[in-house]
Amino acid sequence: MIQVNKPGFYSTIQDMGRFQYRDKGVPVSGVMDAISAGFANKLLNNDPTAAVMEITMTGPELLFEEESYIAVCGAIMSPSINNNEIYNDEVYKVVPGDVLRFGKLKSGIRCYLAVKGGFDTEVVLGSRSWYVSITEKFHLTIGLTLNIAKHKAFSPPENLPGMDHNFKEKELEVYKGPEFNLLTEEQEYQVLNGIFNIAKENSRMACQLKQQLYPHKYSILTSSTLPGTVQFTPSGKLIILMKDAQTTGGYPRILQLTAKAIALLAQKRTHEEILFSLVEQ
């Protein structure tokens, strides 16, 4: 087990998502940056769907009460074991009494802690991903204990290729959304040639952009949405839906981010720049 001494700013347990219940209005949830989370599991030879801890901005303090192996990937948050510095994208053994801490945030915004075999938390509607109103817990709290898979003999994989995930990249690959053709020539030019900044309204539900397109009066029937759907509000604001977003919406869906773009956007801080790069289908 792991005991939570300090929860950090916003730390949750997530896997690859909850996909079978979107028709019931249940969000996908799951890790925001699937590239970093997936690499953490790969380092430990875990199942790709194994649950990890997603850590946002400020890391927790965790006391290990049993032996295991861990890997930290994604944002660089100055992790340490018993105050000894450790590094991202490496495998470390932990034993009872070891304390994992996180310090200064140096790059990115979300990092992922994987343990050998994964976090053995409750499965709800086919997923271990935490989400308010769906699971009993929705973020770490002081004193919480977390079950992890029982330790087994383990040898880290050799010659594993490094992770190709540059947080400084600005281009987000996108496909045309179902209502892309509603855009005027001017609006299309704005969205495909403009540089946008991440607004302060940025969470697991959605990421808003500061700059706005020319306003519109389009109206569509409430339709299905996905993580990565870019909605275009009448005022001209662009809202990018993320993993905890609603499953339907009434704003035109002008773009759809690729999985890689969602992972990149998940590592962007407020005020950082992004631009859209159209991928032809």
Automatic annotation (TrEMBL):
Residues 23-281 form the Carboxyltransferase domain. It comes from the Bacteria. The keyword Hydrolase applies. This is Biotin-dependent carboxyltransferase family protein. The lineage of its organism: Bacteria, Pseudomonadati, Bacteroidota, Flavobacteriia, Flavobacteriales. Gene3D superfamilies: Cyclophilin-like. The keyword Nucleotide-binding applies. Keywords: ATP-binding, Hydrolase, Nucleotide-binding. Transmembrane segments: none annotated.
